[in-house]
């Protein structure tokens, strides 16, 4: 027997040598998948010149390792391992999931096709605006977005001054500054040219947004209601295009009112840590806003509403020439608002009880009064809760009583802190119109 006994297969103990185990493990790991990247070794028997695979060798005779043809080894492997007929492999699939996937894919393809088909189509209103001389270099998509998302269409249902409770002095100032110049532009020329910007500031829930809608309704103007999110975009330079298109469309559709709610989020004070895109957006807005003051013939008004006037940029504050303080409603305004809210409901309140409620709601905003009346309206529902199935209409419910309002006062509290009121009053003294709003403000 040739070779070392430690390197050969022992018949008595039936073990493999290290070389045999290495070849066997190599074959099992690769599984004959990559025929071209590894050399093929086979062991032959000198006595009968019969070739065997490594794992089928019986260990008799002198064994040698030789390099053989890859094609012959592959043929031997396939002949011993594969069946006579090999059927093609079919990928398994679930009917429900595949159908949903096909439906989703088909829908997305149809949507993409429709977008491609409508990409070049624009509405008639957009075409008319793009053909206007003041609409130079405007993107049709941005114009369509402004017409669909920013312009608030009232459809003839405007807001009247009688819909706003209290604020007598503020209404008079707005009528003098805004309404009359828009209705009689031929009278307000020269030094009497109207202001192009009005800032409404004060506690939240006092009716600043409602005043802006009323201005647009009374002046018969196109109302643009925007916010900071309406002008921002993830694409660089898209926000500036939106601002430029907004003012261009407003000039085309004048008389127009651009109302910006929570303007402090758009025109905050600029600083070094501010992002470049936000700075460019503010700069473009201020440039377009400043262009209104140079052309007195344009009947265009920008109204800003904010609860935090001290955070406005100085340049923006300068452009809002008229800065009006909208305070909390006084006792008379609270009573008027409460009467309007409960007028359509069945109640047992008399004037004495109503005056007592107005005294107890000192410091409440208009929004707080609405919440209070809504909470009191649930009183009859709670009283008949065990037998609620017997009641079919609201007329069959018990009336709202004074006790329902007193119970609601324990739940609904004022949302404006006294310290915030002090800040508003101080800012009004420094930057607002030097006018006494005692009859509009709360009773001291």
Automatic annotation (TrEMBL):
Transmembrane segments: none annotated. It holds the Pfam family AAA_lid_3. Residues 194-330 form the AAA+ ATPase domain. One of its GO terms (biological process) is regulation of microtubule depolymerization. Residues 23-67, 96-128 are annotated as: Disordered. Keywords: ATP-binding, Nucleotide-binding. Belongs to the AAA ATPase family. Residues 40-52 have a biased composition (Basic residues). GO terms for molecular function: ATP binding; ATP hydrolysis activity; microtubule severing ATPase activity. One of its GO terms (cellular component) is centrosome. This is AAA+ ATPase domain-containing protein. PROSITE patterns: AAA. Residues 96-109 have a biased composition (Low complexity).
